[in-house]
Write a structure and sequence with these properties.
eight-stranded mixed β-sheet, three-stranded parallel β-sheet, 24 strands, rod-shaped
Length: 798
């Protein structure tokens, strides 16, 4: 402050014809003394008289200080009544920005709200979600920590613990705080505290050997040399913090290096500093009319100060010429007042808060007049930075980001790694060089501080009961749901046409499912169907080749041909089920299957009736001889088939089957299937077929013991027994399966029943034709018991 005032007085530009002086009053950080000093300045004497200036001509137009927020609050409340300008270089409590309570208060240090906001942004930038907080037990600490907690909570961060640092030393409270730090899993600890009160806690932490934490410092101690001692190196190495911006002040650095106590023999401040810095004491000696100095350490055995000690040899803890931060604020405070005085003296007549006659009369200056110009002051200092106050009396919120780095000798160095300029446009107000940061233990990687590890894609966060939001469990998404981001709070359901992949971090199209010839099951059924077709064609060719033999001609040769052709179509109709459903195949595959099987069963029924009619007609005097012949069996087969064709035609006309995509069949697959259109028509078709089969089985069973050397009804009985058994088993199997297996069950029933009919009815005849030709004779078929009537009947049968 003394240097700045001297510099202003030497300036030819600023206040050229005026000399600034100063008075100093030490509040000793006591609120009562600060209030007493304020009243003393206002009244002009040690025994203050409120509202009176007891020493006319003595002008103190502004006050710089105090450093503590608590003392500034009292001073500003009194000074604001008189609009007496006050500039603090260190008080950050946000309450002082309230112009309704403190109208004449200014400061060259940003508000604590802005400091806290920058600390919160720093925590958010590094992705720390689990943070501990130490706050001072006053408005300064509590308001700052509240802003930090609010900002972190707004972005989903959590407070692991919040401990209050006592204003009055308490060993019990300090031990409790240290224990909370030790037990917490939080590795990031934000500290809103002053240097003097924090050092007691840090000493206890260092004594207990607690390390591995990253401390986030506020401006009060982020650049403090009190913590640069080696005993704190292990504990505080890697600390990162927000600091008020540093000024270069090259001339002041040179001034400190040139400082000599003999240059100002009446300066008690320099003398006291010299004793403290060099740990010596002045020898009391007379010089002229008085003494040069009086030792402040009388009675202590210390070396005598010579006055020629070099300030360049002092440690940084005593004289830190590379860290002008609060010093820079004092410098700007002095120049702000000087600039305001300069503007007042050089005011434009007719403007300002007072008459133009007093515009240049400095001796009549009132503090409230200076207050008017101080509010509007704006200038560039020697570092080229703009100095001004906003509407709340605060300076531009500009901060440095410091990282505490250790050298090889274990000494702490404060390295600037970024900064905040809240006056800059959004996106440019925060800069940081992460590669320049050295964290605890010398690591370059950003440390992690989480209550729970992040949930990878495919998992969602599930909150723990009674725990903070940041403490959660990672629960896998349900089938069909995904998360494609880290730490998702919920899973998202895939569209109906998609399904979650194995890792459940992506929706993939569902697999199309239908019974295909390109898979094992479909290929097997297709091979069986082709085999049945080939066997049927082989039997048909055998029958055609031996068409004039008795065993082929027996029991209506024409119906045998029709039955073989129908069985051939049955095998072919099953292939229509082994493909991707299309409109044509869906529409006709069930109809084709039902029609050709009806023809098969109708032919079998007609052949059974033929045997019964012929046997009864062979009895003497039977009236059934008129029914003997091919007309009745053929008519029965045709009538039964036409009835099924009529039923299927109504089905196709009214509600035909159609292909559909079944998304609800399976969660992982899309079923391509044929919707039968009318389930009633489908089951009526099967029911009619079942009735014909049952009638055929019943008649064949009753006629199985009719005397004949080759009674075909025996084989028809076996074939229909197999047929009925297959289709009775088909019904529950069909209803209990889904998807392609339902289709496979129907195809299997078609093939099994077709093969059953083919083998039971035609294999015995082929055996006789090919391997027992001697049995393929009229005499053998009639069993040598033929009479004229039976011969006639046999001719009619043929």
């Amino acid at each position: 402050m003394i240097f700045s005032i001297d510099e202003v007085n030497r300036s030819q530009r600023l206040l050229p014809n005026l000399t600034l002086g100063f008075q100093m009053y030490d509040s000793c950080s006591a609120e009562a003394r600060a209030l007493q000093g304020t009243m003393w300045i206002l009244s002009g004497q040690q025994d203050p008289v409120p509202n009176y200036q007891c020493q006319p001509g003595q002008l103190v137009p502004a006050i710089i200080g105090d450093s503590l927020s608590a003392t500034c609050l009292l001073m500003a409340r009194v000074l604001g009544i008189y609009r007496y300008p006050q500039i603090s270089y260190s008080a950050v409590v946000p309450t002082l920005s309230d112009k309704a309570q403190f109208p004449s208060f200014f400061r060259t240090i940003p508000s604590g709200n802005e400091v806290a906001f920058c600390i919160a942004r720093l925590v958010l930038h590094f992705g720390w979600t689990w943070v501990g907080v130490l706050e001072l037990e006053n408005d300064y600490g509590q308001q700052g920590s509240q802003i930090i907690k609010s900002e972190l909570a707004k972005h989903g961060r959590c407070i692991a613990f919040a401990e209050v640092l006592p204003l009055v030393y308490s060993q019990e409270k300090i031990l409790r705080i240290v224990q909370a730090i030790r037990q917490s899993s939080a590795r990031i600890i934000v500290v809103i505290c002053t240097e003097s009160l924090l050092i007691q806690v840090m000493e206890e932490i260092s004594r207990q050997g607690i390390s591995g934490r990253v401390w986030v410092a506020n401006h009060s101690w982020s650049s403090s040399r009190s913590f640069s001692r080696r005993e704190f190196a292990v504990t505080l190495g890697g600390t990162i913090g927000v600091a008020i911006r540093r000024g270069e002040m090259t001339e002041f650095r040179d001034h400190l290096f040139r400082l000599q106590p003999f240059g100002s023999p009446s300066d008690p401040i320099t003398m006291a500093f010299w004793e403290h810095a060099f740990r010596c004491q002045w020898k009391i000696q007379s010089e002229g009319n008085g003494t040069m100095a009086r030792s402040s350490q009388v009675g202590k055995e210390l070396p005598i100060c010579t006055g020629y000690e070099s300030t360049r040899s002092l440690e940084e803890t005593i004289l830190d010429v590379d860290n002008f931060r609060f010093t820079y604020n004092v410098y700007n405070s002095v120049y702000a007042i000087a600039q305001a005085l300069h503007n007042l003296i050089h005011c434009t007549p007719g403007e300002g808060p007072f008459a133009q006659a007093t515009c240049s009369l400095f001796r009549d200056l009132k503090p409230w007049q200076l207050f008017h110009y101080l509010k509007r002051v704006r200038f560039l200092n020697k570092d080229g930075e703009e100095v001004y106050f906003d509407q709340n009396g605060n300076p531009p919120p500009v901060f440095d980001i410091l990282n505490w780095q250790l050298d090889a000798a274990g000494n702490v160095h404060y390295v600037k790694v970024g900064g905040f300029d809240l006056t800059a446009p959004k996106g440019k107000d925060f800069t940081i060089n992460e590669t320049a940061i050295v964290w605890h233990g010398g690591h370059q990687q950003v440390p992690r501080s989480v209550c729970s590890n992040s949930c990878v894609p495919g998992f969602r966060r599930a909150a723990r009961t009674g725990a903070p939001l940041c403490c959660f469990d990672c629960v896998p998404c349900s089938p069909g749901e995904i998360t494609n981001q880290t730490d998702s709070s919920e899973c998202f359901k895939c569209p109906e046409s998609h399904w979650s992949n194995r890792r459940q971090d992506q929706c993939v199209p569902k697999t199309l499912e239908f019974l295909s010839v390109y898979e094992n099951l479909g290929a097997t059924l297709c091979v069986v169907a082709i085999f049945g077709c080939l066997v049927t064609l082989l039997i048909l060719s055998i029958f055609i080749r031996h068409r004039n033999t008795p065993i082929v001609k027996a029991n209506n040769r024409f119906l045998s041909y029709i039955l073989l052709l129908a069985l051939l179509l049955c095998f072919l109709s099953s292939v229509g089920f082994l493909d991707k459903p299309h409109t044509l195949t869906c529409k006709f595959r069930q109809v084709a299957f039902g029609t050709v099987f009806t023809v098969c069963v109708a032919c079998i029924l007609a052949k059974t009736l033929t045997v019964v009619i012929v046997f009864n007609a062979s009895k003497p005097g039977s009236k059934m001889r008129v029914w003997v012949g091919p007309k009745l069996p053929n008519s029965i087969a045709m009538a039964c088939s036409l009835l099924q064709i009529l039923l299927c035609s109504i089905w196709l006309t009214g509600s035909p089957p159609y292909p559909q995509v079944n998304l609800k069949f399976n969660t992982e697959r899309i079923l391509l299937e044929c919707n039968e259109g009318s389930p009633t028509a489908f089951w009526l078709m099967l029911g009619y077929l079942g009735i014909l089969a049952c009638v055929s089985f019943l008649m064949a069973f009753l006629a199985r013991k009719l005397p004949d050397s080759f009674n075909e009804t025996k084989y028809i009985t076996f074939s229909m027994l197999l047929f009925v058994a297959v289709w009775l088993s088909f019904i529950p199997a069909y209803l209990s399966t889904q998807g392609k297996y339902m289709v496979a069950v129907e195809v299997f029933a078609i093939l099994a029943s077709s093969l059953g009919l083919l083998s039971c009815i035609f294999f015995p005849k082929c055996f006789v034709i090919l391997l027992r030709p001697q049995m393929n004779s009229k005499g053998f078929l009639l069993g040598r018991k033929t009479d004229a009537t039976s011969m006639r009947i046999n001719r009619n049968r043929n």
